[in-house]
Amino acid sequence: MIKKFLLPDLGEGLPDATIVEWYVKEGDTILLDQNLVSMETAKAVVDVPSPVSGKVLKLAGGPGDVIATGALLAEFEIDPNLPQRAEGQDTGHHHGPTHAAPAAPAAPAATAKAEPEDAGTVVGAMQVGNTVVQEAAIAVGGVKAVPAVRAMARKLGVDLTRVRPSGPDGTVTMDDVKRAAADGSAKLGATPASAPAATPAPAPVAAAPAQRSPLSQSGKPMRTQPPGVTAAGQPEQLKGVRRNMARVMADAHAKVVPTTLVDDADLHAWIGKQDITARLVRAIVAACKAVPALNAWFDGEALTRTLHPHVDIGIAVDTDDGLFVPALRNADMLDARGIREGINRLRAQVESRTIPASELTGYTISLSNFGMFAGRYATPVVVPPCVAIVGAGKLCHDVVAVIGGIEVHRRLPISLTFDHRACTGGEAARFLKALLDDLALPQ
């Protein structure tokens, strides 16, 4: 009996996923719920288990290929002599988002009961409950490592087979990979030191590539052709985080009516060295309390606005893979130390790709500290359902006119983009003033 296995929905209705690595090859025999393939989604690296026991007949694509949700992932020849899932038993496999019935009003807290999570959000046959399940290290090619470590190794160009493991039972850890990347001891494609150098065979002499020149052979200025006629580069398919980022940005562009206000925060009164990002978070909290209209969600179809009593700030984190926006929860309850520890934790989880998907959603307002790299002002993108994002530019020393003369002040450019459907210009201006006033305080 032949079984075609379609890529299930790996969470939150994502339309596709990218193959990281197969744990089997065509012709191998695999057991029920044994890990079949590691897939990268916009938010995590997920192991997809086999739905049957049997022989692998076909694998759809190789590492780096994008597979659409509901498309063929693998094909098996079922072995009736091996364990199989009982008829009608829940596998947790879903091949696309479903339309749920309207949710009933929440019960009062005093009578609420803890319900187990829906098994439909999990790939594979798993017990429903509140038990915490640790990610297991899988041995592939003689190396034991969890998928997140393998993803980091690929990103840093580290050959896992040459990394010295320090984890339990010879497991390669995230620190092992980062250490190998830092000292260059396990570069991909590098020749081991103990291997004798091979003598290369004489290669045929190839004609030297033509050198680019602004002049033609006749000495006249060279005319170029538009890129649509000839292109030296090759198109690169977006994958994983960057692919999802493209969708989110396009959706935001189509659904938001953005307007941007800019001004400069004067930091001349600051006492001693201070954490600029922590001060920005504190100032956003102060502004949200002064003008709650920007700490809100907006539903453009129903034309409803939800004001939030708490402040969860989405902190934009730039990576080689694309943009992540983890949420700094309850920022209005944190002091400067708590803010810094929370930001450091989120950044570490993003870099190691271990951040839970739940931490990448649900923020009430956003912060982009793009000035860490360059740029004074910007028009940051508001991502629905949020209605505002604060952008901090590059710290500058400006000549400022004061009573009796001029002074040089340290100033921080601030850009505020807001959805004009949900906020008035006056609300945005008052929000920006409250933010600037807090940043101007000595400490």
From TrEMBL:
The keyword Transmembrane helix does not apply. It holds the Pfam family Biotin_lipoyl. CDD domains: lipoyl_domain (cd06849). Gene3D superfamilies: 2.40.50.100, Chloramphenicol acetyltransferase-like domain (3.30.559.10), E3-binding domain (4.10.320.10). Residues 83-118, 185-235 are annotated as: Disordered. The keyword Acyltransferase applies. Residues 2-77 form the Lipoyl-binding domain. Residues 144-181 form the Peripheral subunit-binding (PSBD) domain. Residues 98-112, 190-210 have a biased composition (Low complexity). Transmembrane segments: none annotated. GO terms for molecular function: acetyltransferase activity; lipoic acid binding. One of its GO terms (cellular component) is cytoplasm. InterPro entries: 2-oxoA_DH_lipoyl-BS, 2-oxoacid_DH_actylTfrase, 2-oxoacid_DH_E2_comp, Biotin_lipoyl, CAT-like_dom_sf, E3-bd_dom_sf, PSBD, Single_hybrid_motif. Its cofactor is (R)-lipoate. Its EC number is 2.3.1.-. Forms a 24-polypeptide structural core with octahedral symmetry. Belongs to the 2-oxoacid dehydrogenase family. This is Dihydrolipoamide acetyltransferase component of pyruvate dehydrogenase complex. It comes from Thermomonas hydrothermalis.
